[in-house]
């Protein structure tokens, strides 16, 4: 039926099922909508080219859903639709749709920027840094802001010494400033930075060096087990917690309870081994935004990249055996 009435069926899906994907009050609604769209995407294939642009962005917004089955279904649909996007460029909006849905300006802009990042505008940070950004650093921040805006996650792969720490710190600080400007009673959720143990102090130093102390207060979560237990009482006083991969492995039962704002993995290629205890622990961390910083995301083979993506967008690349 869907193949013989593609336009009518997809019009109903876009106008009724797509909004259900954003229904935070009902996981069953999100699950049902995700399964329906997944079935249609798998069954209709290239016949969905005219509708690909209207489906991709809503699906992306759900790829961080707290429910595993929702993430799995929308990720599978997204992966199948992405190859259709180049074919959809220049096509007129599908007929039979609400004019507002068919010509969603924000979604159109998003797809242009996704397919060609030269279309991404310069992002104005919501705070002043104690340093002048180089052009490539501004471009990196533009991209990080693009990810944040559309609830995506990504890898910043600048070479060592080019300012990945600065760029990541800047986007976290800007997010804090933007949230405070809303004049709400609550502060933004704290962010978690995970790095090699030798870099914990370096991260704290760099943030203090570049970011106004009124915006970001760091806590170095390290030391013995007893010392870390004592440090937990100070978590509420800080909005950036810096710790090591080894501590995450040891304390995942505690750290995994929180929903962090940003979870940033420095030298993120450390989780390239999908079967290691550190990788398993890191993937239990929950956050609104996930970033990996690494100058060498692929060190041995393509499976290294699979493990990194499994942290960023679980299910997007299937299982390690696929």
UniProtKB/TrEMBL annotation:
InterPro entries membership: ARM-like, ARM-type_fold, Helicase_ATP-bd, Mot1, P-loop_NTPase, SNF2-like_sf, SNF2_N
One Pfam family cited in the UniProt record for this chain: SNF2-rel_dom
Any GO molecular function: ATP binding
Highest taxon listed in the record's lineage: Eukaryota
Ranges of residues in domain Helicase ATP-binding: 145-315
Alphabetized SMART domains for the sequence: DEXDc
TM regions (residue ranges): none
Protein name per Swiss-Prot or TrEMBL: Helicase ATP-binding domain-containing protein
Native organism: Salix udensis
